[in-house]
Structures are given as structure tokens and as C-alpha cells.
Write a structure and sequence with these properties.
Blueprint (H helix, E strand, L loop, with lengths): L3 H5 L4 H13 L4 H8 L6 H10 L3 E6 L2 E6 L4 H34 L3 E6 H9 L2 H4 L5 E7 L5 H17 L2 E6 L5 H8 L4 E5 L8 E6 L2 E6 L5 E6 L1 H17 L4
Length: 251
């Protein structure tokens, strides 16, 4: 008989052998169980105790000697049901712990820099916002290039839909010569305020920030995106952005 299902259900190899031995033996002391199952005598009591806790073995004391008996195989279903409940409870506890664990991870790495290459790399850097921003929080962009390839526009449109669903807001400052139709499109999405830079500086880099993260994007045929996790640097980025934002006007 293939007993792998018992091991998949959570029984160890030793527990499987002892349980099956008891099914054949009926009521038995440890000697015949050891002989039938082939497990070491030194661990037989440990295995029997674990099986008893799982509801798969019972015992009686007769003439000061414990005699063991396998519980009905139907008890395996009860055991699986309890394991499922325990797993679901553990899953809920882990879900509740994740925000605290993430906070611990970020606290342990207060300063970090990562470099992302290419268009896909830029997307990866940007989508980190969904790991760190909660509903009601925001990110900002400064100096978004006026001219972008079609794949960029297509991505940003789909990402704004994702952003709206997540309840995250954003403020965007585009280079001064950006087409007003682009701003009109971005402002059509809820919780997005897109404006033109109050200066005609046309730099090849854009800046993004949120919480303790500052991002620098260098647009070229093979774009480079640099992500810095550092509260002090992120605060500097935010201060520069706020000054430009204060001087900007709605289109």
C-alpha cells in the first residue's frame, strides 16, 4: 500500500510505521510494536505519545503495563480538519505580523541604494510604491520629460488605474514644454494633480519621492533608475519638490 498520503497529511515516517503496525496488531505493548514497525526502541514512546496527541492512538493500563491500540482510520479526517484550522489561524497571525516584520526589515536597513536598468527596471522601481504606500498616502514626481516613448505613456495610463484602485494619490510636475493633452489625460484620473514645472529647465532626469524613498530616473535609450532608501535624502527631495509645487499653477 502507498502510504505517502499519510506523510503528506503530516505524519512522520516513524509515526506512519507505528500507526500501521498497530492497525495490524490490535492491542499491543511496545515490544511487538517495535518489532512490527521497525522503529528504534529508544524512540517508540515518543512516537506513541505524538500519535496519541494527534488522536490516532489510545492506550489502557493493564497489570501496570500500557497497552496501545490504533484509533479508527476515520480519525485521520478529524486530524486533517484540526490541521486545516491551525493552518488558517497561523495564516491570519502571519498576515497581521507582516506590517511589523516589514517595519523591522526597513529599520534594519535604514540606508540603501539600488540601480535598475532599462524600461522594465524603471517599472520595478516605480511599483515598489505598492509595497510601502497605504491607502490615502501619496508619491510625487518632479521634472517628468515632455517627450516619452509610446510604451511609457501606455504603462503610466495602466498604472494610474492601479494607483486609483489602491487608493494612492500623486502630484506630478511635468517639464514646462509638455503638451497640455498629456496633463489633461493624467488629471482625468482620481487623486492625481498634474501640472507644469514653473521653469523651462529641460533636464534629462526626473525625480520621484515617497516616505523614505528617493528615486532618480535618467531617460535614454537604455534608461537607468536609481532608488535610494534614506529618510534624510528623501526629505531633501520632498523640500525641492514642494518649492516647485508652490510656484506651479493648475493648467
Amino acid at each position: 500500500m502507498d502510504l505517502s498520503a499519510l506523510r503528506e497529511a503530516g505524519l512522520t515516517e516513524g509515526e506512519t510505521k507505528v500507526y500501521c503496525a498497530l492497525l495490524e496488531l490490535g492491542v499491543s505493548t511496545t515490544g511487538p510494536i517495535v518489532e512490527k514497525s521497525g522503529v528504534a526502541r529508544c524512540i517508540i514512546y515518543q512516537i506513541l505519545d505524538k500519535l496519541a496527541k494527534k488522536g490516532l492512538v489510545t492506550y489502557i493500563i493493564k497489570e501496570k503495563t500500557k497497552q496501545y491500540q490504533a484509533a479508527s482510520p476515520k480519525n485521520l479526517l478529524d486530524y486533517l480538519a484540526r490541521r486545516k484550522e491551525e493552518f488558517e489561524e497561523s495564516n491570519r497571525k502571519i498576515e497581521d505580523m507582516i506590517p511589523k516584520l516589514l517595519a523591522m526589515q526597513h529599520a534594519a536597513r535604514p540606508s540603501e541604494a539600488r540601480i535598475y536598468m532599462g524600461f522594465r527596471g524603471m517599472i520595478s522601481a516605480h511599483e515598489n510604491i505598492y509595497q510601502k504606500l497605504a491607502k490615502g498616502e501619496e508619491y510625487f514626481f518632479l521634472g517628468i520629460p515632455a517627450e516619452q516613448e509610446k510604451q511609457y505613456h501606455a504603462y503610466w495610463k495602466s498604472d494610474h488605474a492601479k494607483r486609483v484602485k489602491a487608493g494612492i494619490s500623486c502630484r506630478l510636475l511635468f517639464n514646462a514644454n509638455t503638451s497640455l493633452s498629456v496633463l489633461k489625460n493624467r488629471n482625468a484620473y482620481p487623486n492625481c494633480d498634474a501640472r507644469l514645472m514653473p521653469t523651462d529647465i529641460d533636464a534629462p532626469a526626473w525625480f520621484m519621492g515617497y516616505k523614505d524613498v528617493a528615486v532618480i530616473g535618467l531617460q535614454s535609450q537604455n534608461p537607468i533608475t536609481i532608488e535610494i532608501t534614506n529618510q534624510e535624502i528623501a526629505s531633501w527631495f520632498k523640500a525641492y519638490f514642494e518649492e516647485f509645487w508652490r510656484r506651479s499653477q493648475k493648467p
